[in-house]
From TrEMBL:
It is found in: Cytoplasm. The keyword Lipid metabolism does not apply. Coiled coil: none annotated. This is Transcription termination/antitermination protein NusA. Participates in both transcription termination and antitermination. It holds the Pfam family NusA_N. SUPFAM superfamilies: Nucleic acid-binding proteins, Prokaryotic type KH domain (KH-domain type II), Transcription factor NusA, N-terminal domain. It comes from Ruminococcus bromii. Monomer. Binds directly to the core enzyme of the DNA-dependent RNA polymerase and to nascent RNA. InterPro entries: KH_dom (IPR004087), KH_dom-like_a/b (IPR015946), KH_NusA_2nd (IPR058582), KH_sf_prok-type (IPR009019), NA-bd_OB-fold (IPR012340), NusA_N_sf (IPR036555), S1_domain (IPR003029), TF_NusA (IPR010213). Keywords: Cytoplasm, RNA-binding, Transcription, Transcription antitermination, Transcription regulation, Transcription termination. It comes from the Bacteria. PANTHER family: TRANSCRIPTION TERMINATION FACTOR NUSA (PTHR22648), TRANSCRIPTION TERMINATION_ANTITERMINATION PROTEIN NUSA (PTHR22648:SF0). Belongs to the NusA family. The gene is nusA.
């Protein structure tokens, strides 16, 4: 490879990998120094003259001019120095830079140089990857699916010039990713290890929903509407509390958009995941009542302010709706508000004084937990055994009815 080809290759590598040419040249210099040190008995006094714009790549090794050579690795005779440098003005004890052709170095020295250069480039790639991921930390980015592992279901995705892994556990349950798909992912964290930087990529993270609304709703991006809290069970349902800093702007309406256009585009991105948008309130009773939407709440009693415990009463016919399918509605409401919610029917037939029959939903309740009802409750609520599913269209219809009134 001549010098012109060398610089063309370095330039191509810079474009493809994003590694600066200066960094790669620096590692080439280190590699040649290592090779010289190994081949010339420890002599690593190498002088470089590298000018990419002029395709100049000149390497020289310094040696001392002597009358009689005892150590050819460090010394050169006056006659040889004059012959090589083609000049007479050379004196004994002068240090001269003798042109060096890297091809003349031994096989072992060349191997050592190659390893040093490769290691430098790998380090540069890792540095570029780390820098790229850190610049996008906590952000929503568009990635391209490169390939899918048929066994684990994990997807290798490309973000800019870097690759990352999207594990099956961080995908939305009904994601059916294919090679070439363009998807939005959230960069939750960046970690470094012996194998290099690793980005924690997710589509199930609750902040993915926040970033989607920031992109879709100008009022959120501008700071007029603030997202106070989000609770999510990825692929199934999300609850989000918002508040407006401008009394003339309806925070919930801004997020829903005209005829649900804004929220529906996000629902589509999330594969049909239901999104409940409620208005945040500093009054915990109002906030908890709204969080249990679409169920109607009759009253909220604060039983322990310090530990954030409350008792909620709902109409008998709305009990299943308040609890939701497998407790999902109440569970998400608890996570959204940060309160432990004890849901009871208006009739009180669960036995208010019996601790073992309380329907208490805590923040740490898992999706697998179920709320057990006795036989009487099941008979009374069978006709209204709703799963708490509330579509964005229902929100829009309620909003339009209000406007017409």
């Amino acid at each position: 490879m001549n010098t012109k080809e060398l610089f063309a290759a370095l330039e191509m590598l810079e474009k493809e990998k994003g590694i600066p040419m200066d960094y790669m040249i620096e590692n080439i210099e280190k590699g040649i120094e290592v090779a010289c040190k190994n081949y010339y008995g420890g002599n690593d006094e190498v002088v470089f003259k590298i000018l990419p714009d002029k395709n100049v790549f000149d390497v020289r090794l310094k040696k001392t001019v002597v009358e009689e050579v005892f150590d050819p690795d460090y010394e050169i005779s006056l006659e040889d120095a004059q012959k090589i440098l083609k000049r007479k003005a050379i004196n004994i004890d002068d240090k001269v830079a003798i042109p060096l052709d890297p091809k003349d170095l031994g096989r072992i020295a060349i191997g050592a140089a190659r390893n040093t250069i490769r290691q430098g480039i790998r380090t540069g790639e890792k540095g570029q990857t780390l820098s790229e991921f850190k610049s996008k930390l906590g952000e929503l980015v568009t990635a391209t699916v490169e390939r899918i592992d048929p066994k684990s279901g994990a997807a290798v995705i490309r973000i800019g010039k870097s690759e990352a892994m999207l594990p099956k556990s961080e995908q939305i349950g009904h994601d059916n990713l294919k090679e070439g798909d363009h998807i939005k992912v959230y960069i939750a964290d960046v970690k470094t290890s012996e194998k290099g930087p690793r980005a924690i990529i997710s589509r199930s993270h609750q902040d993915l929903v926040k970033r989607l609304f920031e992109q879709e709703v100008p009022e959120i991006f501008d700071g007029v509407v603030e997202i106070k809290s989000v609770s999510r069970e990825a692929g199934s349902r999300t609850k989000m509390a918002v508040v407006s800093k401008n009394p003339d702007i309806d925070a919930v309406g801004a997020c829903i958009g005209t005829k649900g256009a804004r929220v529906n585009s996000i629902v589509d991105e999330l594969g049909g995941e239901k999104i409940d948008i409620i208005e945040y309130s500093d009054d915990p009773q109002k906030y908890i009542s709204a969080a249990l939407s679409p169920a109607k709440v009759l009253s909220v009693e604060i039983t322990d302010l310090e530990n954030k415990n409350c008792r909620v009463t709902v109409p008998d016919g709305q009990l299943s709706l308040a609890i939701g399918n497998k407790g999902q509605n109440a569970r998400l409401a608890a996570r959204l508000t940060g309160w432990k919610i004890d849901i009871r029917p208006e009739s009180g037939f669960f036995g208010e004084d019996e601790e073992d029959e309380k329907l208490e939903v805590a923040e740490d309740t898992t999706a697998e937990d179920t709320l057990e009802l006795d036989d009487t409750a099941e008979e009374n609520t069978e006709a209204l055994d709703l799963d708490g599913e509330k579509t964005a269209e229902a929100d829009v219809e309620a909003d339009e009815n209000t406007n017409e009134e």
